[in-house]
């Protein structure tokens, strides 16, 4: 039990976790209210999907730039701005609902909300990772999954109970007030108990530098591709559960509601399972990906509601373990000054998989039936997992790694150091110099892969020059001077 909740020993994380639960609950209340508002205004499920597209579009188009901002500026300052904007947009949405404004205004707010969210996400990732030590980041992310699942259940339950009584407008007001809790928590976080992260120097700043960095990590690219396959075909259960309920299971809306609850419970169990692990490893990711793929194959072969629900529960738990493990590994196995851009890349993959997977699974369900759609998707994700497993095992830079290291990390370098901040500020000027975790293989000009040179970007001082001079003294002569830290 102590292992499962070890991140909560940090006062800063406890404050943030409490505020996060309140904020997630409010966000899901607004999601349900917005969907219901658009549906009652238009009566069209297609126009409802358009509002979701407007929210997701900025994440795909602006993710790289948002990550660069997170890597360059104080995360706390960015979050104060984004959380304030979220609160203002929620109040504006309430006014739209009360005044029966045109639908175009709702779409405009959805687009603005998506734009704010794309800058909010990487900053949240960097800030949250500064609240716990490096060894406890995976546990903190796992508990965050539990908090998100619990907030989702509470928020949707409250919204479902209130929307018929108060209307959609008050749901947006409640969400606006939830951001006040986040702003209070941001003010109460103690900077001297935060763990510093490096920020990008000018030569490594910008979206293109982040893109080159991600493309230089072949193992990270492969994991992102696997994440895309798993998210698009393996975890779009909102589509397949609805199709199965109206099809082979024959349970209708009531059955779909029950399955949604089962899935939500599974996500909570998955969060606790991930939190109980000492370390979230690459091997765990691959094992869970293969297991959920097999379970998805099995789920498509039944027409019994109880059996389907029993299979969906571990699938939901495995989905959370997979997501948490990927998020943990891409943060711990990348350079600290690139963390915001790496998280943005993951966010872009998630957004793209959601946009592509829903229509594909819907088409498969209509043409071949929901059961065959699940079986096809499970077969594809299983084959993708095996292919990634074999590819990682044969990568030149990983092939000769010791067994105890080979299936733990994405990268092969151990270069991260951290210590609690000693000053009350966490601005870029006062953070540690950026870490030098470079990929062992990088993309050179001419689209060819070649080993990277191991370099350091820290400024050279007089002591460094002295060391360089002493290296020219013939062997056997006493050397002096200090090297790079």
TrEMBL record:
Subcellular location as annotated: Cell membrane
SUPFAM superfamilies assigned to the protein according to its UniProt record, in alphabetical order: MFS general substrate transporter
Compositional bias (Polar residues): 467-485
Region Disordered, annotated ranges: 411-485
InterPro entries named among the record's database cross-references: MFS_trans_sf, TM_effector
Major localization class: membrane
Membrane topology: Multi-pass membrane protein
Domain of life where this protein originates: Bacteria
TM regions (residue ranges): 169-189, 210-233, 253-273, 280-298, 304-322, 343-361, 373-392
Keywords recorded for this protein, A-Z: Cell membrane, Membrane, Transmembrane, Transmembrane helix, Transport
Cellular-component GO terms for this entry: plasma membrane
PANTHER family: INTEGRAL MEMBRANE EFFLUX PROTEIN-RELATED, STAPHYLOFERRIN A TRANSPORTER
Protein's name according to its UniProt entry: MFS family permease
Biological source species: Halosaccharopolyspora lacisalsi
Lineage per the UniProt record: Bacteria, Bacillati, Actinomycetota, Actinomycetes, Pseudonocardiales
């Amino acid at each position: 039990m102590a292992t499962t909740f070890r991140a909560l020993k940090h006062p800063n994380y406890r404050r943030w976790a409490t505020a996060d639960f309140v904020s997630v609950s409010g966000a899901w209340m607004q999601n349900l209210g917005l969907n219901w508002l658009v549906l009652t205004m238009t009566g069209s499920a297609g126009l409802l999907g358009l509002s979701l597209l407007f929210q997701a579009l900025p994440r795909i188009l602006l993710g790289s730039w948002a990550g660069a901002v997170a890597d360059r500026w104080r995360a706390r300052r960015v979050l104060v701005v984004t959380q304030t904007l979220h609160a203002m947009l929620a109040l504006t949405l309430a006014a739209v609902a009360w005044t029966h404004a045109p639908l175009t205004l709702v779409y405009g707010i959805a687009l603005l909300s998506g734009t704010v969210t794309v800058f909010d996400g990487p900053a949240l990732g960097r800030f949250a990772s500064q609240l716990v030590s490096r060894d406890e980041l995976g546990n903190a992310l796992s508990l965050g999954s539990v908090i998100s699942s619990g907030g989702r259940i509470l928020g949707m339950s409250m919204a479902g109970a209130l929307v018929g009584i108060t209307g959609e407008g008050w749901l947006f007001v409640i969400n606006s007030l939830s951001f006040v809790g986040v702003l209070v928590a941001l003010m109460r976080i103690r900077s001297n108990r935060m763990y510093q992260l490096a920020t990008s120097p000018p030569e490594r700043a910008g979206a293109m530098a982040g893109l080159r960095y991600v493309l230089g990590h072949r193992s990270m690219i492969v994991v992102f591709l696997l994440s895309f396959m798993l998210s698009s075909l393996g975890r779009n259960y909102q589509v397949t559960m609805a199709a199965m309920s109206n099809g082979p299971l024959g349970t209708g809306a009531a059955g779909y509601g029950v399955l949604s609850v089962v899935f939500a419970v599974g996500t909570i169990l998955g969060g606790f399972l991930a939190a109980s692990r000492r370390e979230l490893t690459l091997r765990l990711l691959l094992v869970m990906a293969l297991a959920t793929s097999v379970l998805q194959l099995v789920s498509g072969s039944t027409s019994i509601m109880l059996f389907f629900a029993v299979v969906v529960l571990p699938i939901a738990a495995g989905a959370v373990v997979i997501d948490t493990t990927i998020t943990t590994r891409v943060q711990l196995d990348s350079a600290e000054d690139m963390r915001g851009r790496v998280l943005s890349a993951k966010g872009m993959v998630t957004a793209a998989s959601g946009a592509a997977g829903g229509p594909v699974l819907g088409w498969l369900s209509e043409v071949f039936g929901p059961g065959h759609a699940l079986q096809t998707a499970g077969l594809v994700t299983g084959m993708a997992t095996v292919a990634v497993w074999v590819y990682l095992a044969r990568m030149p830079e990983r092939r000769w790694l010791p067994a105890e290291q080979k299936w733990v990390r994405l990268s092969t370098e151990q270069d991260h150091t951290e210590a609690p901040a000693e000053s009350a500020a966490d601005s870029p000027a006062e953070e540690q110099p950026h870490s030098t975790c470079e990929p062992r293989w990088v993309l050179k000009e001419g689209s060819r892969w070649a080993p990277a040179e191991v370099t350091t970007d820290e400024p050279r001082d007089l002591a460094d020059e002295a060391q360089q001079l002493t290296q020219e003294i013939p062997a056997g002569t006493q050397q002096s001077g200090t090297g790079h830290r």
